């Protein structure tokens, strides 16, 4: 059985200035999503699950997803603020999304294979999906066999503003030991720094692995995530802005001996459209790769 690809596409792209999942940046109007699905298919994935918002589901299906149906199995799940575990209700004042951990949890009922999780607005490259699919296929039927594709931090920054990244540490076998979410990461005067979970700004190594939210999990990730999300809701019922991130789930599983997380390497270079000003660079890169014969245009006939 082929692995599944879960694409987190519920964000509205507030910094970018619009619904960037639907922005055509390829030579024939292809979206970054199109490239991810195309690379996933040729990498060995058999199903794609889109985590979206109900408010733009119709537009999303018509403009994006219908082109995939003749190439790969497609499913949709919706992430909404009130989609909470049994026994929990939405508290007044909550306006901020629950985060990537909650988004992944929405796919529980439609995924029964090892699965990768990615952002909708990031370009990861062909080989990234190939190493993911190979790892997940090799570990089908296992528990606690997780992975992530690592990119060097200095290769994941934007010239147009601050970004958020999960900063990783690994052991001698290239297994993940911790990942800490850092916000407002920026390079200034040759030094990279960001604000850690302690609220303080720290200098960060240029060659640190950055988690770009490209993970691989065996299906046991879902009950573990739900358990932690329930604990998160209890502990933060009076914190309407806190988010529940995938790195928190992974850290907890590592600390409790429930998993190992292999950091996979790839020759591909990440790029994305965090800000509107990033768009011309992305358009130029995709045009260059198409002209070099790495991708057809259009991607899907």
Protein topology:
Elements: E1 4-8, H1 32-43, E2 47-52, H2 57-63, E3 73-78, H3 100-105, E4 115-119, E5 122-123, H4 126-138, E6 145-152, E7 163-170, E8 176-188, E9 191-195, E10 201-204, E11 209-217, H5 221-235, H6 246-255, E12 260-264, E13 271-272, H7 279-291
Parallel strand pairs: 1-2, 1-4, 2-3, 6-12
Antiparallel strand pairs: 4-11, 5-13, 6-11, 7-8, 7-11, 8-9, 9-10
Helix pairs in contact: 1-4
Structure notes:
By secondary structure, this protein is of the alpha/beta class. It has a domain at 4-143 and 212-245 and 266-291: Spore Coat Polysaccharide Biosynthesis Protein SpsA, Chain A (Alpha-Beta Complex), CATH 3.90.550. 25% of the residues lie in helices and 26% in strands. The strands form 2 sheets. Strands 1, 2, 3, 4, 6, 7, 8, 9, 10, 11 and 12 form an 11-stranded mixed sheet that branches. A two-stranded antiparallel sheet has the order 5-13. Helix 1 links the parallel strand 1 (4-8) and strand 2.
């Amino acid at each position: 059985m082929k692995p599944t690809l879960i694409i987190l596409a519920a964000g509205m792209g507030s910094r970018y200035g619009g619904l960037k999942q639907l922005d055509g940046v390829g030579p024939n109007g292809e979206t970054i999503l199109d490239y991810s699905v195309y690379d996933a298919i040729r990498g060995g994935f058999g199903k794609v699950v889109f985590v979206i918002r109900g408010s733009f589901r119709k537009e999303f299906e018509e403009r994006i997803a219908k082109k995939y149906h003749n190439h790969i199995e497609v499913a949709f799940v919706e992430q909404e603020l009130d989609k909470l575990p049994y026994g929990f209700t939405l508290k007044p004042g909550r306006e901020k999304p629950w985060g990537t951990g909650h988004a992944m949890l929405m796919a529980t009922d439609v995924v029964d294979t090892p699965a990768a999780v990615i952002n909708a607005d990031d370009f990861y490259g062909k080989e990234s999906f190939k190493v993911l699919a190979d790892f997940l296929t090799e570990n089908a039927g296992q528990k606690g066999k997780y992975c992530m594709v690592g990119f060097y931090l200095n290769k994941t920054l934007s010239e147009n503003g601050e970004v958020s990244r999960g900063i990783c540490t690994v052991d001698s076998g290239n297994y993940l030991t911790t990942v800490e979410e850092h916000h407002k990461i920026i390079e200034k005067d040759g030094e990279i720094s960001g604000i850690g979970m302690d609220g303080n700004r720290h200098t960060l190594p240029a060659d640190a692995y950055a988690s770009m939210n490209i993970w691989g999990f065996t299906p046991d990730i879902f009950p573990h995530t739900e358990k932690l999300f329930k604990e998160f809701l209890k502990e933060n019922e009076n914190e309407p802005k806190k988010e529940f991130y995938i790195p928190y789930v992974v850290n907890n599983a590592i600390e409790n001996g429930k998993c190992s997380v292999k950091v996979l390497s790839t020759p591909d270079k990440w790029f994305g459209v965090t800000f509107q000003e990033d768009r011309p660079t992305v358009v130029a890169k995709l045009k260059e790769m198409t002209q070099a014969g790495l991708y057809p245009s259009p991607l899907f006939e």
